[in-house]
Design a protein that fits this description.
Layout: H1 2-24, H2 28-45, H3 51-54, E1 64-65, H4 71-74, H5 94-103, H6 115-118, H7 134-143, E2 147-151, H8 157-168, E3 174-178, H9 203-213, E4 220-223, H10 227-237, E5 243-246, H11 252-263, E6 273-276, H12 288-299, E7 303-306, E8 309-313
This protein binds S-adenosylmethionine (SAM) and 2-acetamido-2-deoxy-beta-D-glucopyranose (2 copies).
The site of one 2-acetamido-2-deoxy-beta-D-glucopyranose (NAG) has 2 residues, from loops.
Length: 315
Amino acid sequence: MKEEQKQPLFQHHRRRVAAFTRKKFTKPAAYVILLLLSYFFGYLSAPSSNSQYDSPPVGPRIAQNRVTQDTAAADNDHYRFTTQCGAPVPSKLVRQTILDRLFNGTSPYDNFPPAHATTLLRKKKIKGWGSNGAVFENLIRKVQPKTIIEVGTFLGASAIHMAQLASGLGLKTQILCIDDFRGWPGFRDRVRDINMVNGDVLLLYQFMQNVVHENATESVLFVPFSSGSALQQLCEWGVFGDLIEVDAGHDFHSAWSDINRAYKLLRPDGGGVIFGHDYFTSADNKGVRRAVHLFARVHGLRVQIDGQHWVIHSP
Ligand SMILES: C[S@@+](CC[C@H](N)C(=O)[O-])C[C@H]1O[C@@H](n2cnc3c(N)ncnc32)[C@H](O)[C@@H]1O
Ligand SMILES: *[C@@H]1O[C@H](CO)[C@@H](O)[C@H](O)[C@H]1NC(C)=O
Ligand SMILES: *[C@@H]1O[C@H](CO)[C@@H](O)[C@H](O)[C@H]1NC(C)=O
């Protein structure tokens, strides 16, 4: 962010220098100086490559970046996510609301697994990325969330970890996992031992099996749709989160959309926290960090870093 902040400052400076040199010098020497100065400031303010992201951060583990409001940017259509959310559903009713709205009032874990899937699932197959980082415990201790919304769940590694942390702290936390449970094209090259039936990769069932195996069916529910439609629907239903994790699509446009929609789902009375993975990993250049920075700048928010994760507190 520091690099981005520098830019307007130097541009401003460059204009002043140019005005100053025009006034004081009329000789050819002035043009040489002007040329050199322009080059110098142009060089400093040019957007550097992504090299600033290539190396891990130095200094304290928790870095803080103050980001200022960019009002001009707010005029742009891409910055508008205007859905008006419904009146907040009380925390105690969140689970029943999801069961009623999505599962005809019954637990989707009842009679799981169905006979046709039993032999296709592994008793437990949990693989995640940075899913046990300290950030989860730090934030759950701090926020004491009644409702957690996770965007991007995969096999449930981070969701189950959060369920265990919450129950260890004596919290009655409902965790809602948004995922289309499709993974991404080619994910089976990286995550083996997941069966496929007629092109269906069984991610939802294996995730459910993991939740059942870890005795977390009371605290973990799922919203098995694309992140855009799921977040929009939760907003309309008035289902808010005290803590929201964003870890779905890592390209800029997916992350941008998810962060904007998810932020609207932080509890309206303030004190909620949104956070996400791949701020400091090899995947960050794909766009997560860019999206986080832009979001923070547009909203005048501060980005904190905890391990590989970014963290933003709602005011
Ligand atoms: C990196 S994995 C999540 C890992 C998980 N948070 C953990 O730590 O174990 C990303 C997940 O996002 C899901 N995903 C990607 N794009 C999505 C979208 N547009 N809507 C819903 N889910 C999506 C994929 O199916 C995948 O399961
Ligand atoms: C939904 O639940 C009702 C009972 O509460 C039942 O009569 C109905 O068949 C169920 N619908 C589906 C699609 O399962
Ligand atoms: C889940 O609960 C069962 C029965 O209470 C117990 O035997 C098992 O060890 C538990 N599993 C985990 C992972 O806690």
